Write a sequence for this structure.
């Protein structure tokens, strides 16, 4: 695990309920995928697998083969090979029969050890023994914080996980004894001196303790309260004790629900003389009668005898009393009993579940007839019965409630507590929830904030009614006016284009005019997107690459000036890039035009939303043509689109003509041109984006500042010029020692739910097609930054918790590689 603190799944409790989803994953071939995302298993004890089952002296309520099933049908050879082990053979010899829980527990421990060994062998997973989960906290809608204590040292740790699975056991609550009416009143305090809970009897030597309490009672009377399988197990265990000389009716079973019998089929039930069932009591999946509530094995035989099926003789020592029937007899049984054993069920022992501020989240409080703590996907429910996404639970008394999909009898109102279901249907549901949540909660590098046209049907209908879909129509014209007013304070002019690459080609072509063949170079940075170089090539020019500044990552002034000295007479146009929305010094480039006569076109693809030192829109009032992108990856996202802006109206009108085939007159080409017109639908999207853009940029700027705080003094970020940089993602530089491991860093980050990128790497001079068609001087800074750059998610909707998680995952990854 190394220093890993982030996981796809944390399992709290390595007992049957905790490991059941992992066994289900192994059965259905999903374990490798689960482990690849990182699984942390946390267990209080030094041993794992069986929970408290080995402490019980009673037999199982399931046939022996139910414990073997997940191994026999596993897709993992390492698990299947356990079938030759003595513990597996001991269970196999009991097929069709009940199994002592100590035998079942020994096999579960064996299987769990092997499974956890597989977890530990996974590079991204771990098992912590002798640790306890203190709390789970929902730190965001995609992450949980799991607070864990090392029971040996007392040290505490916090792990992050997309999903948490709770299996922290169950208990028999004392409050039910004080609040739930049995007979004339609750059992406590009136019978406290002669009352125990069933769990005290089931443990080893529990029967001895009972007999010790009754040593002065030659003919003891015991009343068992409950009609569950636990109550049946108590009756069987007590009646087997020859030292307990029960009189007739000395062992009374008080039950609320009718006592049911399990049968493999309706035919089997009828053959046994049992007709007390309806068609709704037959499981539609298995055909079994009373699959969930019916007594099985020895308890079933006891009730069969009591019912006199097939001429069976009831045991005279056992008396059955329905609590909703003869209330006087029930009260008498309680009053006359020397010992009362409450078998009134269990409740889950849940660890604290907290919200982001550390306050307890009220969970569903089980009540009679609605006992389940989880929903049908095993998701823990709030008090309002809303599922907590990413938090599942399983185990004794957890649930879920019975359902048609799970099978069983229609009217069953209890919980589904079945190891077989845990390791199959229910366990698979948990695995599916975990994997789906991992996909749903993985932070993308980019998430477009494009206006939803579906919410503006009337505007779309207006376009249809106008019958104008392109050719700088009314919607486009309105947008051009509004964007200048809104972003550039009404100063300057603009024309749209269907995409920024074509806009860049138009601006370059217009800038070079009828230049001589000797002027064939475009001076531009190599550290930029390929569209710039491709636009130059389409204009018949050759890229000449300059280096970049090591701090701002903008074109290096020294590099540009050196190349101007070396190639001054051959440079047709200069195309500096406003890297990642950073603010270029436009005044310097205007002076460069005046001093050299070489035109300048500004590649400002990512800069809509940037603010200069005067807190004005980048480019406002500039005489240089600026090309902005409205691609889905940009801050001003429309899907696809470009915007050419300039303070010179004649230049903008000339570019508009060039964007429409160069038609200076009606359908007569008077200058170079192509079709770069924006559609009316795209212009509508841009108009809608304009309305929400200030709020979007404010939010994105806030997220960027969160990153700045989290990364301060730890890793190098791009130095921002101006008041605001319209970042499309957060970029930083890896330490040089870790740069060779960038792909591995990105892979590990993705496993932790964070998508990263490496813009711009390789830079243009290192891309073969472009390199072979360009002039490439030494570019040491571009090479260094391109080799080290890492792009982190930055998009609307991210929270402080998301940023903290991204940075935490990054440094966890870096530290693991450094160690």
């Amino acid at each position: 695990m190394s220093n890993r603190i982030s996981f796809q799944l944390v399992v709290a409790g390595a007992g049957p309920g905790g490991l059941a989803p992992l066994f289900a994953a192994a059965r259905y071939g999903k374990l490798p995928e689960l482990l690849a995302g990182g699984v942390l298993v946390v267990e209080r004890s030094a041993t794992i697998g069986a929970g408290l089952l080995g402490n019980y002296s009673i037999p199982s309520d399931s046939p022996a083969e139910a414990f073997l099933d997940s191994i026999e049908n596993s897709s993992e050879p390492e698990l299947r090979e356990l079938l030759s082990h003595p513990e597996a053979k001991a269970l196999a010899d009991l097929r069709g029969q009940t199994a002592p829980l100590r035998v079942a527990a020994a096999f579960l421990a064996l299987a769990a050890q092997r499974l956890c060994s597989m977890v530990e062998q996974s590079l991204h997973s771990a098992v912590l023994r002798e640790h306890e989960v203190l709390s789970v906290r929902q730190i965001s809608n995609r992450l949980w914080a799991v607070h864990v204590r090392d029971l040996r040292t007392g040290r505490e740790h916090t792990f992050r996980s997309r999903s948490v699975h709770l299996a922290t056991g169950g208990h028999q609550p004392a409050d039910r004894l004080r609040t739930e009416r049995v007979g004339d009143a609750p059992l406590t305090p009136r019978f406290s001196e002669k009352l125990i809970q069933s769990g005290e009897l089931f443990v080893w030597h529990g029967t001895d303790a009972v007999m010790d309490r009754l040593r002065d009672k030659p003919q003891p009377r015991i009343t068992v309260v409950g009609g569950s399988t636990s109550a049946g197990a108590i009756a069987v265990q007590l009646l087997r004790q020859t030292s307990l000389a029960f009189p007739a009716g000395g062992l009374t079973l008080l039950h609320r629900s009718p006592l049911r019998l399990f049968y493999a089929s309706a035919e089997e039930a009828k053959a046994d003389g049992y007709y007390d069932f309806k068609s709704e009591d037959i499981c539609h999946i298995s055909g079994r009668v009373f699959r969930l509530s019916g007594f099985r094995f020895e308890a079933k035989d006891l009730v069969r005898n009591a019912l006199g099926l097939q001429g069976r003789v009831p045991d005279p020592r056992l008396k059955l009393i329905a609590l909703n029937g003869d209330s006087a007899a029930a009260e008498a049984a309680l009053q006359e009993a020397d010992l009362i054993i409450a078998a009134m069920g269990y409740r889950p022992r849940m660890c604290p579940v907290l919200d982001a501020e550390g306050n307890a989240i009220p969970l569903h409080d089980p009540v009679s007839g609605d006992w389940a703590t989880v929903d049908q996907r095993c998701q823990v429910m709030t008090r309002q019965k809303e599922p907590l996404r990413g938090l599942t639970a399983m185990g004794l008394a957890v649930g879920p409630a019975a359902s048609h999909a799970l099978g069983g009898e229609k009217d069953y109102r209890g919980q589904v507590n079945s190891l077989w279901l845990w390791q199959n249907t229910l366990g698979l549901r948990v695995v599916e929830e975990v994997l789906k949540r991992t996909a749903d909660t993985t932070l993308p590098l980019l998430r477009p904030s494009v206006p939803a046209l579906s919410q503006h049907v009337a505007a779309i209908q207006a376009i249809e009614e106008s019958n104008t879909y392109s050719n700088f129509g009314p919607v486009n014209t309105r947008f051009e006016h509004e964007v200048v007013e809104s972003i550039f304070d009404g100063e300057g002019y603009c024309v749209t284009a269907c995409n920024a690459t074509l806009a860049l080609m138009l601006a370059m072509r217009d800038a070079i005019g009828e230049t001589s063949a000797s002027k064939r170079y475009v001076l531009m940075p190599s550290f930029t997107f390929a569209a710039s170089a491709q636009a130059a090539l389409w204009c018949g020019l050759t890229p000449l690459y300059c280096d970049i500044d090591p701090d701002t990552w903008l074109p290096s002034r020294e590099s540009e000036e050196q190349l101007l000295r070396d190639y001054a007479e051959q440079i047709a146009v200069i195309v500096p890039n406003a890297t990642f929305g950073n603010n270029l010094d436009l005044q310097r480039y205007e002076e460069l035009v005046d001093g050299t006569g070489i035109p300048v076109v500004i590649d400002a693809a990512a800069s809509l939303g940037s603010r200069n030192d005067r807190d004005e829109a980048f480019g406002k009032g500039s005489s240089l043509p600026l090309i902005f992108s409205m691609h889905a990856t940009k801050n001003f996202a429309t899907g696809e689109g470009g915007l050419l802006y300039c303070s010179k109206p004649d230049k903008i009108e000339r570019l508009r003509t060039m964007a429409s085939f160069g038609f200076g007159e009606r359908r007569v080409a008077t200058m170079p041109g192509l079709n770069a017109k924006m559609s009316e639908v795209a212009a509508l999207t841009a108009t809608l984006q304009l309305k929400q853009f200030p709020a979007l940029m404010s939010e994105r700027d806030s997220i960027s500042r969160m990153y700045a705080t989290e990364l301060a003094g730890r890793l190098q970020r791009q130095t921002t010029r101006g008041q605001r940089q319209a970042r499309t993602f957060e970029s930083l530089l890896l330490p040089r020692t870790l740069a060779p491991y960038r792909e591995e860093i990105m892979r590990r980050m993705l496993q932790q739910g964070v998508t990263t990128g490496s813009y711009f790497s390789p830079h243009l001079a290192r891309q073969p097609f472009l390199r072979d068609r360009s002039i490439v001087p030494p570019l040491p800074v571009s090479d260094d930054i391109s080799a080290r750059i890492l792009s982190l998610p930055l998009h609307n909707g991210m929270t402080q918790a998301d940023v903290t998680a991204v940075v935490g995952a990054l440094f966890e990854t870096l530290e693991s590689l450094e160690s």
